[in-house]
Amino acid sequence: MSRKNLLNLIQVDADMPVKAAASDNKLVGQVANTMREEKARQARADEIERRLAEGQVVIDLDAALVEPSFVRDRMPGDIDGLLSSIRAQGQQVPILVRPHPGKPGHYQVAFGHRRLRAVQELGLQVKAVIRALTDEELVIAQGQENNEREDLSYIEKSRFAQRLKERFPREVITSAMSIDKAELSRMLSVVEAIPADLIDAIGPAPGVGRRSWQELAELIHKAESKNPVDLARSDELQSMTSQDRFKALLNALKPRRLVRGLPEVLSTSSGQRLGHVKHSKSKIEITLDRKEAGEFASFLLNDAVALFEERRAKSVGKKEA
């Protein structure tokens, strides 16, 4: 599906008969209900497509007069690649805007936020198609364009759905995002279970899906001794990419289980493996990876006795006190 035909969805014949009654077969009834919901969503999106297809005239606008949508869909991210492309070849695909409902002479983006940001940074005019859209029509167009973009992550889509929920009924949200009510409920349950400041600290985490975010939500509620927001904001994790930051945080929150006789992986909060620890009834063996922790191993060999005596002296002092 091309960006020029963003809302060209699969057609469903609205007059197609249902071959069995719901009372005769519960499963067939459920399928029929799902099809009716799908056809309603298709009809709403088809109407938006019809309006967008009328008179596709592209004009140049002063980018300073164009504002983002009133519903944020994307978390801040890198646009260096887009900047380079527009700098070299110009803006190839127009954005969709509507006249701003509260500011005469200004416009509001339905889709194309990253392109708008790029041309604003480059000091260029923005190529745009202007349409008179209602709030509902704008978010449906915005959501349909989101579905075209593979780089919009699961958590970004879930937050978009959450923001739409504050203003629109579920029927509008499912139309905008081309999802059913069950998937919408799953998205909302995930994003509502994780603190917003933690999601901001992690970032969009491309490639991380629903099950991983659900696992994180479960670990957050069990992590009594660790503050996940502080961990995510640490210098070590902030130096990573967003998806690696997510994985490191997940690893740091997972409980460590000690099984006698079996080695436990020794790693940093970022997931870097240093070696392993093996517990037995009479001893504890620590094995360090020469490549990853060679300098630390040398430090331990040189100072192990001094560290032990210092620790023991402190313990004795506390007992005497």
List keywords for this structure.
321 residues, 5-stranded mixed β-sheet, 3-stranded antiparallel β-sheet, 8 strands, 12% strand
Could you characterize the architecture of this molecule?
By secondary structure, the chain is of the alpha/beta class. It contains 13 helices and eight strands. The strands form two sheets. A five-stranded mixed beta sheet has the order 1-5-3-4-2. A three-stranded antiparallel beta sheet has the order 6-7-8. Strand 3 and strand 4 form a beta hairpin. Helix 4 runs parallel beside helix 6 and helix 5 crosses helix 7. The longest helix has 31 residues. It is elongated, with a radius of gyration of 27 Å. The termini are far apart. The N terminus is likely disordered.
Strand and helix map with partners:
Blueprint: H1 26-53, E1 59-61, E2 66-67, H2 80-89, E3 95-99, E4 107-111, H3 113-122, E5 126-130, H4 135-148, H5 154-165, H6 170-177, H7 181-193, H8 196-202, H9 210-222, H10 228-233, H11 235-238, H12 242-253, E6 263-267, E7 273-279, E8 284-288, H13 290-320
Parallel strand pairs: 2-4, 3-5
Antiparallel strand pairs: 1-5, 3-4, 6-7, 7-8
Helix pairs in contact: 1-6, 2-3, 4-6, 5-6, 5-7, 7-9
